[in-house]
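An instance follows:
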Amino acid sequence: MDTVRIKTRDDDEAVRTALSSLKTATGIPVTMYGTLLADNRLQITQWVGLRTPALHNLIIDAGVGVGGRVVSTRRAVGVTDYTRANTISHENDRLIQDEGLHSIVAVPVIVQREIRGVLYVGVHSPVRLGDKVIEEVTMTARTLEQDLAVNSAMRRAEGVRGTLARVGSLSGAEWEQIRSTHSKLRMLANRLEDDDVRKELEVLCDQMVSPVRVKQSTKLSARELDVLSCVALGHTNVEAAEEMGIGAETVKSYLRSVMRKLGAHTRYEAVNAARRIGALP
């Protein structure tokens, strides 16, 4: 059966749609989007209605101009006369004058508490962009945020599906190698006296099975998992006891508890049941 691949708009398309809808809703001729770069600078990556190439792909240093102030304050910023505004810095005045922009409003686009970019509108005449315009830009920014968040979620889902596909394609020998490594790591963790290091190793063991983990209604203790790991390696109760530094009767007690929890009748049924719920690889 073919897998249905769910498609969503990519981020660039989401931005293009936002710019177009914003221009239609406000009647303002210029709309732009600045993408926040890794070094906290902005780059104008998309635009509608610019008359010149002066602002095309412009990189705006941190804190500079309207966009830089938006990023630093995480709030909308508007100026009526850009080159004379005293609330912003003026490193890019010449480029703004080359384009002929006067009034500009900019709003942050925030996804999962992180600024992803800045949405701009601007006009080539000395008119004030009022509260209604700021509200419209803000609403468009919120819609864009939702679209970008959905895209991010879909990419994460695709990554999980890709991981599961890769896991599903492993050969029997590769799976056995993973299982052996998992069991040996648990045994190593069991011998450590440093609690912090042991916990870190146990976390790594959990991560080895997390791609195939399902919701686990049966909770196994760390000691029970250690015993199962020994059984998975083919150890007898005596060998498991020596490996774990406990008595053979204690191993039996753990095994009885595990089998009761998992509804298993034998030690090997318990191992298979633990694998089905994602407790072992």
User: Anything to note?
Assistant: The longest helix spans residues 131-168. The chain has two domains: 11-159, 171-276. The CA atoms of residues 78 and 105 lie 4 Å apart.
